[in-house]
Amino acid sequence: MINTLIEKIKKTNAPIVVGLDPMLAYTPGHIQKKAFAEYGETLAGAAEAVWQFNKGIVDAVCDLIPAVKPQIAMYEQFGIEGMKAFAKTVDYCKEKGLVVIGDVKRGDIGSTAVAYAVGHLGKVTVGSNSLYSFNEDFVTVNPYLGSDGVNPFIKVCKEEKKGIFVLVKTSNPSSGEFQDRLVEGKPLYEIVGEQVARWGEDCMGDSYSYVGAVVGATYPEQGKLLRKVMPKTFILVPGYGAQGGKGADLAHFFNEDGLGAIISSSRGIIAAYKQEKYASYGEEGYADAARAAVIDMREDIAGALA
Amino acid sequence: MINTLIEKIKKTNAPIVVGLDPMLAYTPGHIQKKAFAEYGETLAGAAEAVWQFNKGIVDAVCDLIPAVKPQIAMYEQFGIEGMKAFAKTVDYCKEKGLVVIGDVKRGDIGSTAVAYAVGHLGKVTVGSNSLYSFNEDFVTVNPYLGSDGVNPFIKVCKEEKKGIFVLVKTSNPSSGEFQDRLVEGKPLYEIVGEQVARWGEDCMGDSYSYVGAVVGATYPEQGKLLRKVMPKTFILVPGYGAQGGKGADLAHFFNEDGLGAIISSSRGIIAAYKQEKYASYGEEGYADAARAAVIDMREDIAGALA
Lengths: 306, 306
Fold this sequence. Notes:
homodimer, globular
């Protein structure tokens, strides 16, 4: 799947993943109104609004981008109905030819980690059947529990030709509280990065590993260091746009082959119509605003890499 | 809710939480057969088997224990149908008067952490309604992302009088890979423990904080240290029984008031009928075997604390 992701990045010339993290407050009034008319102001109504919103975005941008990243929390908050919207979104994006990175940040051990891995990337066994559950292409994984929490994902990735992105240095202001603490002179994120590189050695695609990393765009200096520590690791870079990361900050996340990173933007794309710059599209034109924002983001990144 | 948990521990004289982590392989043949007859060897069939299995366990042990800890991964692996079984299990346990600790190990930032917090502990807003989704009493939280990932949970805990248990030192063999790394001479788990104590200061119940910690029974020396670092923190202790933790190892997780810890056992209770010791109950008697195992565990812990 890492090979597929790279092919799609080359084809679209856009190392961009659109985060499908729809807060209900992002969904335009006409979508909410229709969903609530059908299902009431219920969890099912919220899930319907989120799903219709996503569908509009995906239809508008799917030819421009290689991948999407649905953030499962935004669906899980609406309970079972929300999870149905998550599953529909994953399936729809795959139908549209997009690589789906499930931003689930799961992390547990032993049989529990196996359950997350098969539930999101592989197949569960029920009697004599092997069945897919959520069936994303990649998921994000939290490393705090060590190899016991990561190896079950790697095993499933090998079987299914799928992949993971392990949190290394996250984009948020307080990420340094633990991740920056110095261990024998090195920050913890570097130690985690070294381990990610080791985990990845044994599961290589053509040029990059199935085991990727998450490093926030808001920490460009750390990104520069981690790029060297993990040369064969694909880096998923959140924090661009709404969180403050700029195109110019991104160059060091890439290798000299022009590859090795994929930049994520969520609010900056899916709620673009709320920005002054794209306000002329109006609520009704939210999907076209998202398309315009993707095109601008592609140019910003191309400029940074030139 | 921490006050409620403590009351129930005192009433049952059992600082025990039963982990409802049903692998399909734990469910006796007669339960699987009935579920598959009704729903086929499908995700719905698996979810039904898990739910019926849980119901039997809960009915058999609910008068003996204060709390249960469903591990969401074991449900999530079966997709939407599995999540329905999770929700049914949570609701049923609450009906039976049990405190429900959702073992979800979520960890994310900002609006995403808010989504997890309201989805599992609080209420989501849909139009003019505020609605519960999964509605556990406590959840487990991963600290790797720092305060940005924990504060949204704390906010909801204050509003809802609920609580969290933050991963500090996990029970698995490789937990030391990152958690034991020395930061200025202190292991990272101690740094995290200090931060958990700080997070908890501002949300105190009568004698313990709403912000608890997870420390594995398999690391008794570390438990002894962390007990001192976090004197007002309730500690959720996994790893007893099947993972190798023994009653004698547990004494140092408790304070001198005889409180401050709740010991979790999953396989050791719910799959007790598979152990030689409880084999005479047979598959059909799996729930009675679980009851016997709870009584033995209660005695083992009482002996260790005496």
